Amino acid sequence: MIEPLRPLKPHWFHILVALAEGERHGSAIVRAVLEQTDGGLRLWPVMLQTALQQLTEEGLIEPLEAPPEGESERRRYYRLTRAGRKAAAAEADRLERLAHHARAKLAPRSRLAPNGGRS
Amino acid sequence: MTAWQRRLYRAALRCLPRSYRISNAAEIERLGAEYLETYRDAGRIRRALAFGTLLAEAIAGAVIARRGLFRDLHQDVRRAFRGWRRDPGFMLATVLTIAMGVGATTAIFTVVQGVLLRPLPYRDAERIASIWVDLGVGNQSLPAASVGDYADYRARSRAFEEFAAATGGEMIGATGVLTGSGVAPERAVVSTVTANFFPLLGVSPAIGRSFTPDDDRLNGPHVAMLSHGLWQRRFGSDPGIVGSSIEVDGVRRLVVGVLPPSFSLFLPAEAFLLKDADVWMPLQADFAHAPPRNYTSMTVFGKLRPGMTWAQAQDDMTRLAGELRAEHPEHAAANMRIRVIGLQDDVVKAAQTPLRVLALAALLLLAIACANVAHLLLARGTGRVQEMAVRSALGASRVRLARQLATEQIVLAGLGGAAGLAIAHVGLGVLLSLAPATLPRQASITMDASVFAFSALATLMAGLLFGVIPTIAGARSASALSLMRAGRGGTTPYRGIRQLLIAGEVALSLVLLVGAGLMLRSMVLLQQVRPGFDAEPVTALSLWLPQATYPDGRARVAFVKRVEEALAAQPGVEAVGGITQLPLTGSGPLSPYAYDERTAANWESATAEGRNATPGYFRAMGTRLLAGRFFDEHDTLEGPPVIIVDDLLAARAWPGRSAIGQRLQVKPTGTANAFAEVVGVVEHMRVLDVRQSVRGQIYRPYARGGSAQVSIVVRAKATGEGDAATTALRDTISRLDPGLPVTVRPMRDLLAANLATTRFSLVLMAAFAMVALTLAGIGIYGVMAYSVGRRAKEIGIRMALGEDPAGIRNRLVREGMRLVAISAAAGLAGAFLLARAQSALLFGVHPSDPLTFLIAGTILLAIAFAGCYLPARRAVRIDPLVALQGD
User: Fold this and answer.
1) Closest CA to B517 of B776, B848, B823, B779
2) Which end of chain A, C or N, has fewer beta carbons within 10 A?
């Protein structure tokens, strides 16, 4: 079981988020991740497949026994486990805290700090 | 995804770990295909880039998935280097041994590949034949045929697709003088060819066109093709040259084409009629008024029909020769034969024996190197059985240990191979600088990857075989504990294999040593051969007198006389003479002759080298006069025809009688001046090769002919002492005719070039033998030191009990030398075999020359003795107490 505060690999996080909307197969995940990152992250075949296998081993996702009705028989579908949902949420919280902290530090300072200051 | 993309992608995916691949490969492939699908409408380059990215991702994924393996590998390599740091001698010895074996083999086989094996650079080169004609029993045998016969080959042969002919035309071994274009005149080699000559070789011009049949008809147009080299050198690579005129020997010729830079004409050494030329002209043969069939004026090349064998081609030409004998009395009289030889074999035949012998020697060296690597590793491996046993007891798997040892071998082989590549590179440079100029196709010698791979693999296999298996087997067969004891015991593991390896090395070294010894003796004997002249103080200046300046024989004779007089007036000059062709530069024009009724009826049965000499020639060359007199200034066109013959011809024509005053029929065409009187007999001059005399010689006075090709020989005290003397000679001629090209060569260089093949083989054999001897010496020393070291305890006890140290030492040496003696006997037997293969390279020494064998054997035994004696002496010098405590 993953520790809540251990950072997730970015592409793991994106896969988990993509699966949060529902069961998907490989190429659907690729498309969803492309979409949710505005084309910033392309999951390459070996990279995706390796991640899916490792996420399964970690118990964060699980393959479906059979594809959802009306879908292709040939493809393997994945869904988020409870643990996966928790891990993704924890990562989102962590990122949020990180973002908050960063914003506080990066906010424009008073004129007292010359040269932008080093802190 | 196209089919080949899919195949490539699958190959890349195969690098992924198997268990992972089984469950994921199909899905990955699908994803990959979908990805490429998005690029369907993109340009070709972007599609290719996308596919490349896909491949790279798969490989990167595989590397990441297998990083455990790479970590192990890294560890193994580091462990190997750590081990070697403790024992640098071992590593250095192994790497050097591998390097020498790999380097020598690669260098030699690179030459073999470039010279003997790589096909000639012509289209369907394996179907191109050189046609030889034998006239008279054992007399003229040359790649030369008559115009009439050539026409009959083309008309009647069934096995050949086509024949083409080439010759130097009027001038044999022709050189012409290029003039005009406002540049200094230059001597250029000129050859004439039939229109189908270049098409037969599959050579198309770089610019312009080849000759057409219309160019080739009798009295056809004055056209020419240029070699790429001449075009660059003299015409500045100007493409406008095609369609403009050049002047060759005072005749303007239209340039129709320039040959490609890759083209060079490869000829058998005996094809004296033509050369790889600068200027090519159509042959324009006169088939209607062809000279007699025994006037062999052209070199003929044939191209076999596809699917024909050489045997079928030979049968076909043998049949044709029979028909021609029946039709032409001169062929019947000379018992004319036709031989078909593959052009490639014909070109390289002289290099075949030396290269094969050297290749064999290099293989022996490789075998010695492998044996040396093997027992170095055996010695080290048995020392490490203990280490392996301990690690195995601590839980390392056998596969893991084997992998570590294998990694060490591969790293060793890699280091050795890299050093070997460097040695091969340097060695090839040395080889080519030593190589005789007559070694054909030197330009096509380039480092050969396959040869290098072969020899590197051989040493790697030896390393794996002897470096991994014994150690692992040892570690498996005994428990760690027992091995820890056995490691210090008195037995020597793998004693049998080790002795066999040493025996092999000793034997092979002796084979090489004998080979080198025989070459050395040949070289010494060759240098003592008298070539028929004294080369030392003689310099030759070769001239070609152009038609334009010297229109007839009289003008040329007058000019040569002036040159001789001017040179003779130079300080230090003792004698000056002229000759149409220098000795040791190959056959020139042949001169048939007859001396009695039988030979007159079949005058081709006797052929001699025909040369024209000025009165001073023999004196300048230092050639001995055996009877009669030299030519003098009265031997001109006005006087009666006189000749000088060599002792070979004199002994054949008039055995047991004096040749002086005899009449020889030298131009048996029934004309009135056909007879010439012999006025002198000189010693035979070697024409082709210092090793042998080929045929007799007839000299006519130069003053009676006055040919355009002439070499002036100068015997002078000061010549050869630097360039100043040479320049003075050259300047003397330039003062008489500033535009005349002069080639200056000391006769000594000609002689040296002639010995180059022997020297080449000698130097290489000697180098191989030295390396082999060193390796064998190291091997014997290593094995002896190792076995004595293991017996230190026994030796210590014996000495403690009062045995005489010298006695122990002598016994140890005796044991070692017994093995050496047995292997040396085997080596002598092997040497007999190599020497037989080598016999064609030898001169004046029998392949089983007892003295050479004796000396080689003695040298080997001396080195082996040192290898045995030194470790034995050290062993008995150790304090017995120390030896016993060491246990």
Assistant:
1) B848
2) C
Per the structure, the complete domain to which residue B42 belongs is given by 3-65
Q: Is B87 domain-assigned? A: no
Looking at the structure, do residues B461 and B569 belong to the same domain, yes or no?
no
> What tens digit of pLDDT does each residue of B42-58 get?
777 888 888 888 888 88
What residues in B contact A45, CB-CB < 8 Å?
27-29, 31-32, 35, 54, 57-58
The DSSP result for chain A, as a single string, is ---TTSPPPHHHHHHHHHHHTS-EEHHHHHHHHHHHTTT--PPPHHHHHHHHHHHHHHTSEEE-SSPPTTS-SSSPEEEE-HHHHHHHHHHHHHHHHHHHHHHHHHSPPPTTSGGG---
Residue A2 lies in a domain: no
Domain C-terminal end among B681, B711, B739: B739
Mean per-residue pLDDT, B389-399:
75
Q: Does A67 touch chain B (CB under 8 A)?
A: no
Query: How far is the C-alpha of A62 from the C-alpha of B55, rounded, in Å?
Result: 28
- Write out chain A residues lying below 8 Å of B27, CB-based: 26, 45, 49, 75-76
Question: Shortest CB distance from B27 goes to which of A44, A47, A76?
Answer: A76
Is residue A68 within 8 angstroms of chain B, CB to CB? Answer: no
The maximal CA–CA distance of chain B, rounded, in angstroms, is: 108
Percent of chain B whose pLDDT exceeds 90: 20
| Region at B395 (left for phi over 0; alpha for psi -120 to 50; beta for the rest) | left
CA distance B153 to B321: 9
B56 located within any domain: yes
In this complex, which of A27, A30, A44 lies closest to B57 when CB atoms are compared? A44
Quick one: closest CA in A to B14, which residue? A46
- The tens digit of pLDDT for each residue in A42-70 reads 888 888 888 888 888 888 888 887 766 66
Lowest mean pLDDT segment, chosen from B80-84, B127-131, B244-248, B719-723? B719-723
A76/B31 Cβ within 8 A: no
- Interstrand relation of B607-613 and B590-592 (parallel, antiparallel or unpaired): antiparallel
pLDDT digits (tens, 9 = 90+) for B856-866: 899 989 988 88
Question: What global pTM score does this model have?
Answer: 0.68
Say whether both B389 and B513 belong to one domain.
Answer: yes
- Helices B398-434 and B67-86 meet at what angle, rounded to 10? 70
- Cα–Cα nearest to B523, from B761, B169, B864: B761
- Give the pLDDT score at B457: 79
Taking alpha carbons only, the member of B732, B701, B719 closest to residue B635 is B701
Residue A60: domain span: 10-105
The two structure tokens encoding residue B309:
């064998």
- Mean pLDDT lowest among A107-116, B344-353, B607-616, B760-769: A107-116
The verdict on B513 and B577 lying in the same domain is no
Chain-chain contact of B28 with A49 (C-beta, under 8 angstroms)? yes
Half-sphere exposure of B207 (CA within 13 A, CB side): 14
> Chain A: nearest CA to B397, how far in angstroms?
27
B617 and B523 in a common domain: no
3-state secondary structure of B164: strand
The ipTM assigned to this model is 0.78
Nearest to B456 by CA among B117, B91, B110, B99: B99
Domains held by chain B: number: 4
Give me Rg for the CA atoms of chain A: 18
Helices A10-20, A82-106: axis angle to 10 degrees equals 120
Whole-angstrom distance, CA of residue B405 vs CA of residue B77: 10
* B452 shares a domain with B521: yes
Residues B357 and B482 reside in one and the same domain: yes
Q: CA of B637: how far to CAs of B554, B578, B624, B700, B872, in Å?
A: 10, 17, 26, 11, 84
3-state secondary structure of B304: strand
Hey, what are B32's tokens? 């990959």
We report the CATH number of the domain holding residue A16 as 1.10.10.10
